[in-house]
From TrEMBL:
Entry-linked InterPro entries: DIOX_N, IPNS-like_FE2OG_OXY, IPNS-like_sf, Iron_ascorbate_oxido_reductase, Oxoglu/Fe-dep_dioxygenase_dom
Pathway the protein contributes to: Alkene biosynthesis; ethylene biosynthesis via 2-oxoglutarate
Source species: Gluconobacter cerinus
Catalysis: reaction(s): 2-oxoglutarate + O2 + 2 H(+) = ethene + 3 CO2 + H2O; L-arginine + 2-oxoglutarate + O2 = guanidine + L-glutamate 5-semialdehyde + succinate + CO2
Gene3D superfamilies named in the record: B-lactam Antibiotic, Isopenicillin N Synthase, Chain (2.60.120.330)
Annotated protein name in UniProt: 2-oxoglutarate-dependent ethylene/succinate-forming enzyme
Length: 340
């Protein structure tokens, strides 16, 4: 049995360079008629997740109008004056609240060139913008969070079947009615590079990392590219592939928590968001990931018991310490929470 020490962190520290570019096929999976086609879909998801760990789903059930509305609300929120957002600061040790260039990835050692607002429903006390500052924000994004949860649980039910767990195994451990619930909807704003300084182009919009969670669903907008993946967690190859945003598709990736839970069968894949080149679209970029993270009290251990059991809470706290060290130093010790 492998000890609980997080080798994932070791990998992250060695993958900050530019690397090279190669084309790879990112599998696209049709989720239509899910109930009737579940076992076929489960096979397709399993192949994609064991071979590359990144895939895109369509006919996924979240209406495009709702995705567009979520992006409009995010745009309006980030346009608020800085002091209005600063009243909703990211709470140390949680994925709740607003941060500005605070996430330092172990791979790069520099802050991501972005701001973000995280919604983890049980931890939002005093963290929602007012109705006056951001009309309908709370109501609509709570609804959108649930739509993403439904999609995430559909996909996770397929992995549960393939791993030999009960179909509802992961759904019960991502329970929105529990105070230990820790799925997170994150709104991200990568600032415009239109008048940026030459040294800003040397930074990363999001430095190379793997996600900490079980499964990430990522909404992007057509024309706002930059996401790249390097499959296989093979730090040495450094061969990156662009994942272009396509309307109607939700980009998905496996995170470290599910990799561990599947005894390393499902692959958590390195990814990053690069800066645009001077001849590309230089405007702002928005993205909205939803992170499916098991409840804090869930115990992570795969069917083959390759790793010692660890609670989802402790697992995420380890990752948090490595990513938000500066924020924690400024604030109080981490609340028992999560981080991405
Ligand atoms: O913005 C993106 O396209 C990816 C964001 C991401 O990887 C993350 O927040 O973990
Ligand atoms: Fe990510």
């Amino acid at each position: 049995m492998v000890p609980t020490g997080l080798s994932e962190l070791e990998t992250e520290r060695h993958i900050g360079g530019m690397g090279t570019n190669i084309a790879r096929q990112i599998p696209r999976i049709d989720l239509s008629s899910f109930e009737e086609r579940k076992y076929q879909i489960a096979d397709e998801l399993w192949s994609a997740a064991t071979e590359i760990g990144f895939f895109q789903v369509y006919n996924h059930g979240i209406p495009q109008n709702d995705i567009d509305r979520a992006f409009s609300l995010a745009t309006a929120f980030f346009a608020l004056p800085k002091d209005a957002k600063a009243r909703l600061p990211l709470k140390p040790g949680t994925n709740a609240g607003w941060e500005f260039q605070e996430q330092v990835r172990p791979s790069t050692g520099t802050p991501d060139h972005k701001e973000s607002f995280q919604i983890t429903l049980p931890r939002m006390t005093a963290l929602w913008p007012t109705q006056q500052d951001a009309p309908d924000f709370r109501e609509f994004l709570s609804h959108f969070e649930h739509q993403n949860w439904l999609l995430g649980m559909k996909i996770l039910s397929c992995f549960a079947i393939k791993l030999g767990f009960d179909e509802k195994f992961f759904t019960e451990l991502h329970d929105p009615s529990s105070p230990d619930y820790q799925c997170t909807l994150r709104l991200i704003h990568y600032m415009s590079m239109e008048n940026a300084l030459p040294e800003d182009f040397k930074r990363w919009r999001a430095g190379a990392h793997s996600d900490f969670d079980c499964l990430t669903l990522l909404h992007q907008r057509t024309g706002e590219g930059g996401l790249q993946v390097c499959p296989g967690k093979d730090a040495k190859s450094g061969a990156w592939t662009d994942v272009e945003p396509v309307s109607g598709y939700v980009t998905c990736n496996i995170g470290d928590m599910l990799m561990r839970w599947s005894d390393d069968k499902l692959l958590s894949t390195l990814h990053r968001v690069r800066m645009p080149q001077p001849d590309e679209y230089l405007g702002e970029r928005l993205s909205i990931p939803f992170f499916c993270q098991a409840n804090r009290d869930a115990i992570i251990q795969g069917p083959e018991k390759k790793y010692a059991p660890i609670s989802a809470q402790n697992y995420l706290l380890e990752r948090l310490k490595a990513n938000f060290a500066a924020t924690e130093a400024k604030g109080s010790p981490p609340e028992t929470g999560a981080a991405l």
